[in-house]
Amino acid sequence: MGSREILVLTPFFSCEGYEEKWDIKYDPQGGMQLLISRLCIYMSNTLQDMKFTVITMGQPRIPKERLYAGKIKVLSRRVPIPKIHSSLGGYCGLIKAWAVATFFELFKFPKDRFIVIFAHADGSGTAMLLYYLAKKILRIPLILQIHSSRGATQRPTNLWEKITNSLAVKMELKTVSCADKIYVLSDYTKEYYTDNTTKELNIEKIVYLPISNMRERVDKTRVKQIQNEINPSNRKILLYLGRISEEKGWEAFVELSEYLSPDKYMILICGDGPDLQKMRKKIHDKKKDDLFTFMGFIKHEDVQNYITLADIGIVPSKYEELGLVILEMMSMGLPVISYNLPTVRQIIEHKKNGLLVEQDNILDMYDSIRQLCMDKVLYTRISQNAIETSRVICTGINNVGDKIGDYIREVGER
Q1: What angle do CA 34, 273, 258 make, to 5 degrees?
Q2: Could you say which of 128, 173, 203, 211 has the lowest number of CB atoms within 10 Å?
């Protein structure tokens, strides 16, 4: 039948096995890395007659070629860049450096080596340009998995993004229009692409969590250990789980600290990112250090234990494609307070399965925290409904992998 190999293009991929060598100054690990890598593992196990080659972001101490999960070939590529920190994560120009190196890598492959390109998109116009060119160079079908849409949900958060936003949006729509199959996380983004392209799109919504059955994976001994280490006085824990960068809205916690007593509350920050030191400094300047506990990056197998420990989840993102961390918290029955964003409203129904506050309304956020802490009936109702919402919205990674795998097999048989 000829070539049976899949080319995966993504700047974000798991560093499992190389955690100690991974430099978060280049890119903090997070949900996107886990989503795409776990999906690739599942598909490589089910599509056993096919090979997988991933081209992802290069790092100084990570091998340029390695095997992931024993069978997926991972190529790490990046041209040199100056080490100028970005407020969004890592160094400025990282995705561009990866895209340039990957572009030239494409010419090293025989044109009949791959049957399909499976590309991961996070809102970068540069990445979308690469995917468009890859399809033209290799002349094979392009599958796009949209984790975050530049045009539908993202909003510029710095001067460079404001300058280049229009061009990036146009590039995204051009690449979406030429893609053979598109997978998105929300109906909101699906409608945006349908309304803003002239071509009839082969587009589908899929939502899945990288770790399924999270409640069944809770380690009660580990939860008790964490409790004894960080919260022996049994304060109410307000949990933030994710990257500490500008678009994630971390400054809301600094403002929120003005209303909270460290005797009653703890703000638990689980994550790392480019704004970590800036956040710590602002907290220290306000003399609120005793209200915060920073855990840094936590391993994925520990996520459910920290969610179990928490009383309320806080997600103050300036924009979200869907909010997978919200769904993770909801799947564990943790009530979530989030900003009232269009995509978040597709998950959270106010006072039914979570609480919504208007963006930057910190007083309203504080009132919502107090309401959940004081009203046990409301808390229990939201917790139970949140579990059900997550169950209805999310499908298993096996279902998603089978769906994409079936499409790839169909392509391979043409």
Answers
A1: 120
A2: 211
